[in-house]
Design brief:
With about 190 residues, this protein is α+β, with helices and mostly antiparallel strands. The chain is built from 5 helices and 6 strands, in the order ββαααββαββα.
């Protein structure tokens, strides 16, 4: 047995939407003592509530079990996608569904000082905040959380160079009432 100075802690905390008892995302982990390894899986339910939780639980469980069996990661993804694609209801109307969500969100924030940047193939809407603040993206995103209780994803960490374009990503894969609440906050900033 080697004397290893490193320790791994595995923890997860989830926040449910108002009035919901189940989070759409699932985090699973398993310690395999005999092999001295820990497997951690996070699955995005692409939404929230019971329906999203069922899909993400299935996906996370499959990923955890196949990984435990030392299956190749690419093979695991192929198996999960093949299972997902068996049921056309899982994907047939996703594009239309998310387009409606994006259009609703964009319409709700029309009165804000944020500038909408066209975004395609994603459930995140890019917003330019250069008319509101000169703060760096990470600083402004942190302030939105602490002062207004609204979360966003700064774009700058995704670049190789230290660019700061005053852009934030906002997820619109939310319930209508959540989008309305977020838009109300954004319109007051």
């Amino acid at each position: 047995m080697t004397n290893n100075p490193f320790y791994v802690e595995v923890s997860c905390q989830q926040k449910n939407f108002d009035g919901e008892r189940i989070c759409g995302d699932v985090f699973l982990s398993k310690k395999i003592k005999e092999e001295n390894r820990i497997i951690a899986v996070l699955s995005d339910g692409m939404g929230h509530g019971v329906k999203a939780n069922m899909l993400s639980t299935l996906t996370a469980t499959m990923a955890l079990n196949f990984t435990e069996e030392h299956k190749d990661f690419q093979k695991i993804a192929e198996i999960i996608m093949a299972d997902f694609l068996k049921n056309k209801a899982n994907y047939e109307n996703l594009g239309k569904f998310y387009q409606q969500k994006r259009d609703a969100f964009v319409n709700l924030i029309k009165g804000s000082r944020f500038k909408v940047i066209p975004s395609y193939g994603t459930y995140f809407q890019l917003l330019d905040y250069s008319a509101i603040s000169e703060e760096k993206e990470l600083d402004f995103a942190k302030r939105l959380v602490t002062e207004y209780g609204i979360a966003s994803v700064p774009v700058s960490p995704f670049y190789n160079k230290a660019l700061d374009n005053k852009l934030l990503r906002f997820c619109f894969a939310k319930e209508e009432k959540t989008l309305e609440k977020a838009a109300e906050i954004l319109c007051k900033i």
